[in-house]
Amino acid sequence: MLFLLTRPIADQSLAFNLFRYLTFRSGAACMTALVLSLLFGAPLIRWLKSVQGSGQPIRPDGPERHVLEKQGTPTMGGVLILASMVVSTLLWVDLRNLYVWVVMALTLGYGALGFVDDYIKLSKSNHAGVSARGKLIVQLGLGLLASWAIASLTHGPLGTGVTVPIFKDVLIPLGMVFPLFGAAVMLGFSNAVNLTDGLDGLAIVPTIIAAGVFMLIAYLVGNHIFADYLQLNFVPGVGELCVFCSALIGAGLGFLWFNAPPARVFMGDTGALALGGALGAVSVAVKHEIVLGVVGGLFVVELASSLIQVFWYKRTGRRVFLMAPLHHHFEKKGWEEPTIVIRFWIIAVILALIGLATLKIR
């Protein structure tokens, strides 16, 4: 909004001229989201505690200490992340950019689904919310619409193609199947982040790290000069997603202030489904879906551990892990929660560096 308001007078003022620069607006979006989340975090948590009573229902089959340590902690903290991120994005982004609107609509759609899921869990005082089938149907439908919109905005074969890291000239043409592929990326990462969100601070920091990587990718891919130098596929317009990713980082950092161990609030499905979907949508827009699988490899492993556990148990009646997803396996082995969280953060950083390396290796 500020970009369009100050545009007519940018030439007359050095201060307003800064609003033209994507880097300045991205930094401002991060700081705005951070300040908003820090200002409104405590009041929101107090309100959530007053209306939720016993807080987020704890899985009865989970680690025993969760019942003692996490009982009564309010959920739906994702509202804080989404509100701070959306307000900040709208304030600093070029509102004419359709990529931002598509990604933001997908994010809020997944967030609304998560909100309904959290509400059902709280109202029934049960950890089971919306049915798995119901979730998948809604996620798939929203993902198909968002992927189709992104493909329509991206001109030429690149719109329905999948790029391959390291190989500069490889483009896998999917044609009419592309929306299904894009929807699978969004749906998969949405649920992967949701499964990872099981310990204090575990999901939000890797999300922030991934958002930082894709903020840089969006900037490079959306800039013709840098894209040409790095031999990346140039996608006009996606640079504005830097503002969105930066706002996500700021909102995530503000949320982490309250979610750091011991957590005062959980993001719930409201935040986890939305953040995972946001990362998936951005990766589809900037044509780096496979790189997201590397950068967000921690989420992939968490999702895979749950799928493997379910598949093997149904087939043999035995478990591969002591408990799935993977972070609970290490809890059952006796690892302390901060140890698991920090080591997973380290893995997330390493994977992010590997993902960044693919931008230069051609």
Structural commentary:
68% of the residues lie in helices and 2% in strands. Helix 8 runs antiparallel to helix 12. It is built from 16 helices and 2 strands. The protein is globular and about 60 Å long. The longest helix has 31 residues, at 22-52. Strands 1-2 form a two-stranded antiparallel sheet. It has helices spanning 2-6, 14-17, 22-52, 64-69, 78-92, 98-124, 132-153, 178-196, 204-221, 224-230, 241-259, 268-285, 289-295, 297-316, 326-332, 337-357, and strands at residues 161-163, 171-173. It is mainly alpha-helical and 362 residues long.
Describe the structure in brief.
The protein is mainly α and 362 residues long. The chain is built from 16 helices and two strands.
- Tell me, briefly, the overall form: globular
Order of helices and strands: HHHHHHHEEHHHHHHHHH
Query: Number of domains in the coordinates?
Result: 1
What strand line-up does the widest sheet have? 1-2
Q: Could you tell me how far the N terminus lies from the C terminus, measured between alpha carbons in angstroms?
A: 38 Å
The main pleated sheet reads as: 2 strands, antiparallel
How much helix is in the residues?
55-70%
Low-confidence segments, ≥5 residues, pLDDT <50?
A: none
Based on secondary structure, the structural category is mainly alpha
